[in-house]
Design a protein that fits this description.
This protein is of the alpha/beta class. 43% of the residues lie in helices and 19% in strands. The protein has a single domain (4-163), classed as Rossmann fold. The longest helix is centred in the middle third of the chain and has 17 residues, at 98-114.
Length: 164
């Protein structure tokens, strides 16, 4: 039986921290659904269609990852609803630092209350990527800094195009 996990997030934009979580999760699961949130309560730099394209380019063009094991979609529902749609009982979340833990702990608890068949699995990116956040990547590129250590070539191009 194939095991699928849901990796939800904004991915505005995707970073090497996100990619670390995806790579590690592929060692544990047969398929990863990268669910790009299209919620209206955030101010995104890229719209959801742009974020889908950026994630696909980063994973499949820049990094040559296997398209059979990764699905990239957008969603406006609860993550637990997305789990039901893809027949998954696992939500993946990345942790960078202790500061992430309280929010992620509460979120996992709420998801568990919504559906007690769903488990949240926390994965940490490699040490060199734990400091990376999409927010910092956007700030650095906006100020004309070098972000090659933080994200893929096509993502950098998308960011530069957005800020020019």
């Amino acid at each position: 039986m194939s095991k699928t996990a849901i990796y939800p997030g904004t991915f505005d934009p995707i970073t090497y921290g996100h990619i670390d979580v995806i790579k590690k999760s592929l060692k544990l699961f047969d398929k990863i659904v990268v669910g790009i949130s299209d919620g209206e309560n955030k101010d995104y730099l890229f719209d959801v269609d742009e974020r889908i394209e950026i994630v696909k380019n980063a994973l499949f063009r820049d990094l040559k990852m296997n398209k059979r094991n990764i699905v990239v979609i957008s969603f406006k529902s609860l993550t637990t609803t997305l789990c039901k749609k893809y027949k998954s009982s696992i939500i993946l979340r990345g942790l960078r630092a202790v500061s992430d833990f309280e929010y992620e702990f509460q979120l996992a608890g709420m998801n568990r209350k919504l559906n007690n068949n769903i488990e949240t699995l926390f994965l940490m990116s490699d040490v060199e990527n734990q400091i990376i956040s999409s927010k910092f990547v956007k700030e650095i590129i906006k100020l004309d800094g070098d972000i090659r250590k933080f994200t893929t070539r096509s993502t950098i191009k998308a960011l530069k195009d957005k800020y020019e």
